[in-house]
Write a structure and sequence with these properties.
The chain folds into 2 domains: 123 residues, no CATH class; 100 residues, no CATH class. The protein is built from 13 helices and 7 strands. The strands form 2 sheets. It has a 5-stranded mixed beta sheet, sandwiched between helices. Strands 6-7 form a two-stranded antiparallel ribbon. α2 crosses α3 and α5 packs antiparallel against α6. It is elongated.
Length: 311
């Protein structure tokens, strides 16, 4: 740009003071994808989208049930939600979307298996489990899903004694093959909850296909956002958060014109005044990023004498 972009920055400086907030979604969608985009260890932006556009976003310090509930409460419960199983999500779903079915991303389920076996397992039990994990991607019918479950149960029975072996370490008994045991437990829980093969449910398929993975949000939202942050590396945390908010808003279904955005979206000052009214405490800071817990927005509407960033 001429002048190294100074004119552009001068014309857009007003927009950095705004917080583009998500709209209320009263339309019931068949499938919604949710995921969290982490900005190091300081913040996470929870995002929800459909096949075509972004429908919600929420800023929190960590993934927890309160943050997920704040995101879900502004969106009408969909028929199915596809998720990678983030921390606190299931608790929030039971509270906000109790009738919504869950599809656990098959790729992330396979990743849990791969963590326990590695890509080159040396133990026969690990080799068999890794092969079972890879075969999940080829399941296209409910009959194949039932056969896969039967093969997995047979694997559990066949290696039950092997997996139950324990070793005495640091004055306590631990599983000798701890990583395999954790992989087994994660898959067993998904099967018990009935979230691994939701995409094959005949009743849900009447309203349209259901993806087995959350590639739509990983590739359609998270990847462009990471590219944007990489292209504009050097932004401080607050600017990175606002850049994500702006991207999500401009990729929502009905973004307002720029002139109208300037009149309706809250500014830093509006948010700060709202925060002071809620707490009743005069803040010495004039910068949002210096508030007590910085950008943990769920604390703006939750007054409690104890920490709220865990489940």
């Amino acid at each position: 740009m001429p002048g190294h972009g100074r004119s552009f920055r001068r014309r857009t400086v007003k927009f950095w003071n705004l917080w583009p907030l998500p709209p209320l979604i009263d339309e019931v969608h068949h499938v919604v994808y949710v995921d969290g985009l982490h900005l190091g260890r300081k913040a996470v932006v929870l995002i929800a989208r459909t096949d075509t556009h972004v429908i919600g976003w929420y800023l929190a310090k960590t993934e927890n049930s309160r943050a997920w509930s704040a995101l879900m409460d502004r969106i009408a419960p969909p028929d199915v939600v596809v998720t990678d199983g983030g921390s606190g999500f299931e608790k929030a779903r039971r509270h906000s979307w109790p009738d919504t079915q869950v599809q656990r991303c098959v790729f992330h389920a396979f990743q849990q298996i791969k963590t326990g076996t590695t890509t080159r397992p040396r133990l026969p039990a690990g080799q068999e489990l890794y092969a079972l994990g890879k075969s999940m991607f080829r399941i296209e019918t409910i009959e194949q899903a039932h056969q896969w479950i039967a093969d997995y149960v047979a694997w559990c029975v066949r290696w039950e004694e092997f997996l139950s072996e324990k070793t005495w370490i640091d004055n306590r008994h631990v599983f000798t093959h701890d990583r395999l045991v954790r992989a087994q437990r994660s898959i067993t829980k998904l099967l018990r909850d009935g979230t691994l093969f939701t995409y094959l449910d005949a009743d849900l398929l009447l309203d349209g296909a259901i993806p087995a993975t959350n590639n739509k949000i990983e590739g359609g939202t998270n990847a462009p956002l990471r590219t944007m942050l990489r292209d504009h590396r050097g932004l401080r945390l607050l600017r990175r958060v606002k850049a994500i908010f702006w991207w999500c808003y401009l990729n929502s279904e009905y973004p307002l014109p720029a002139a109208q955005i300037l009149t309706v979206m809250p500014t830093d000052t509006d948010i700060e005044n709202y925060y002071r009214q809620l707490t009743g405490i005069e803040q010495r800071s004039t910068s949002i990023e210096q508030w007590g817990d910085a950008i943990a927005w769920h604390e703006l509407h939750q007054a409690a004498p104890y920490r709220t960033d865990w489940d």
